[in-house]
Amino acid sequence: MTLHSPDGSAVGGCPVEVFRLGGGPGETGGSGDHDDWWDRLREQHGPVVPVALESGVTAWLLLGYHENLTVLQSPHLFSRDTRRWREVTEGRVDLSAGRPALSWRPNALYADGSEHARLRAPIADSIARLDMGATSQLVRQIADDLVDAFVARGSADLIAEYADPLPVLVINRLCGLPDSYGRMLGDLTSIIFGEDPREAEDAVIRLQQYFAGLVVRKRKRPGADLVSWMLEHPAGLTEHEVAHQAALINNSSHQTTTHLIGNTMRTLLTDTRIRSAYADARISAQDLLDHVMWTDTPFQILPARFALQNMLLGNARVRAGDALLIGFHAAHRDPAVYKGRREETGVAGGSRAHLMFGAGPHACPARDLARMIAATAVEVLNERLSGLRSAVAPEELRSVRSPFVRGVEALPVLFRPGNAVGEKAKGEGTGTAGRNGTSGHEKESEDDILGRLLRWWRGSGRGRR
Ligand code: HEM
């Protein structure tokens, strides 16, 4: 994405690469941790900057806190439906052409008004039915199992071996399947974000089979899980619709939670003041998460909203059909709201008014669940890994090469080798998890779509964990 000033000349005479439509990696500013870059952009252009996507396709990037909040909270002025984008209606952008961030799917995220309410209610009501005590024990059990796999080694990559698989394993269990399916789900999701487009295309089809198969199995044999609850919800969604909402739950929860955990652990490993405030219980795990959500947002740009009429927004003349990109990280650095860190502990704010869980009708329906998963994940690492320290200097940590996500590709750590707690944790976990999610004892040998998919995955040599 090259930024242009309103008169058409490139910013500062030097085009700044932010993100390329289609999800290609940005080169500089905005794709990593270049905080000054965001501040300079706001100083030069105000709270709303015009951006030109590489193909000449245009959008607005929102940098101001209040502008972001207004757009999120005004569904009568801004649609979430990508098909309303002028670039689409005038034929310059094809939403089906492999653009994961700017596509359209028949799920709540891309719907407006009453259709949004119809699709969202089964998701939100099912999440609300979860027994949070049992779910917290389930998360702890899954976190313990992941730690067990590397604790004796004295070293680990906290992204690949922990923060990345954990959310998928949790969601898979909350959807009522044993962990083998969760490991397959995590693997397929990673391939989608990987480097090989042919493999990614195949993984998308396999993931569709996973969610379709999950719904068929839960219709046949309902349990105390999110998918069974969505199927029985009075909104009366079809099986096809439930499969799409289940896929949305997985997509919405994965990278967001991974990088909230990853960025929080990076903060603890690199910021001694915050680390000692946390160790001395002057701040809680929840305070720590809020600090990270203010200062190191797990995703920094969220696509998108589409203007429903012409208007003046901040300093910008927005036209009906224009796309607006939500700029979380920039919004949180807006001097109008960001007042710096507290002297005593080093954490930002003390308020939960950050926008990290969105606002308005599409606000995250799983805010409490997400906070609990991330806080539990951080607590388990700190309890289980003594002498935990980074294995590399902070400047050696590589940022994720994505314009949207803000996190590190790997987080290598060292610690004193310890013992597994697996069997004890599993014994404790099975009973409580059974009140929501599977007990882990469901049969795996069934000859349905899911069973065949699992056999394919194992036979393909990918089922290595
Ligand atoms: C740290 C973790 C998470 C963060 C930061 C986060 C953030 C968000 C944000 C900002 C939105 C609004 C998107 C928009 O306005 O366009 C959203 C929506 C959503 N999130 Fe989360 N989320 C997280 C975890 C989860 C989890 C764990 C789940 C499910 C178990 C979940 C399910 C959803 C769903 C279904 C939506 C769509 C809601 C709608 O369109 O009405 N999220 N999330």
UniProtKB/TrEMBL annotation:
Per the record, which residues fall in region Disordered? 420-447
Q: Which GO terms describe its molecular function?
A: heme binding; iron ion binding; monooxygenase activity; oxidoreductase activity, acting on paired donors, with incorporation or reduction of molecular oxygen
Stored SUPFAM superfamilies? Cytochrome P450
Belongs to which family? Answer: Belongs to the cytochrome P450 family.
* Protein name, UniProt field: Cytochrome P450
Q: Which organism is it from?
A: Nocardiopsis algeriensis
